[in-house]
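Feature request, filed as a ticket because there's no other form

It would be nice if the structure record came with a short human-readable summary line next to the tokens. Right now we just get the raw output. Example of a typical job, pasted below so the devs can see what we mean:
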Amino acid sequence: MNIPRRYWRNLDWPLILAVLCLIAIGMVVIYSASYSQLVAAGLSPFYYVRRQALAFLLGLVLSVVAVWIDYRDWKRWSRLVYAATTLLLVGVLFFGNRVFGSQRWVRLGSLSIQPSELAKLALILMLAKVFENEENAQDVKGVVQAALLTLVPMGLIMLQPDLGTAVIFVGLFFAMWYVGNARLKPLAITALVLVALAAIVIIASLKGWIGIIKPYQLTRILVFLDPYADRDGAGWNVIQSIIAIGSGGFFGKGILGGTQSSLHFLPANHTDFVFSVIAEEFGFLGSLVVLALFVIMIWRGLRIAAVAKDTYGTLLAAGATSIFFFHLVINVGMTLGMMPVTGLPLPFITAGGSTMITSLLAVAVILNVGLRRSKIMF
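Raw output as currently delivered:
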């Protein structure tokens, strides 16, 4: 389908530029964070950068295709996409590669795919279809249907186990339920019930009555409350992250100048704790720039959702924007010791092909809705 020329005026350049800036910063940070360990291993210091660049190019091609197809045509494919990603989530439990105790990746040749990342987009498509009818957001049957659609991939992801990503699915459900014109009272009651259930499960797991939460996950919760309770074990990552962030000062130590990162005190420095590297090497000022770019992304995404042509478009844009919001809050909060360590990536910054591709596709969803809006946006 060709895009009418008049639609190109609706292309959101602030959003695109913010994304490109984040990707460029991510390449520099990944290079700096992984330099010493790659050189020590006899590998090229650009090893992860090249992989990230390849993922960017692949994601860019897929995103152009996604923008080209009218988002309203996606409805007919939403069930198929949801079913396919669910099958991938089932398959990864049996045939996936186990890394650090979790079975999250499917290997296709030289490419590793994390189905849980794709499942976020599939869930957005399905929830947008359900809540497009505003009565479903206010009717018990409609909400239960949406909750079941959320619980299926979420449960499979918890079995990997990947509790951090599963939390994102809860956030997406509530965000899209709210945007779908939910009544605030049932939404608030449901949220409080879930918080209470989570607290009961954690306490019961600590007492040893049930085994839903894995021992290492319980340890992460305890370390979140007091990192120094196990300073040389599970608390090490958080403590070193906080030291790295604090040592960066206002302007930072410069590229390759981060001692916590280059001397390997800070683990997972090019993945989970990449924001700590930003704070150490680029300081408070650099951290503020990165956060500002994410704020621009989220702002433009919400603006596009607000002026979308229809409710379906509003839900798609809001859902895609929510992915970035939850990842930002949880990842940065984790590095500051304000959130439990979950292993959630920072979009466009963390090294990882699946994250890069799905993040670009999420941006494509937002741009697609923005291109075809009928209202004037300033």
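Something like this underneath would help us a lot:
The longest helix spans residues 274-306.
The chain has three domains: 18-68+215-378, 74-181, 183-213.
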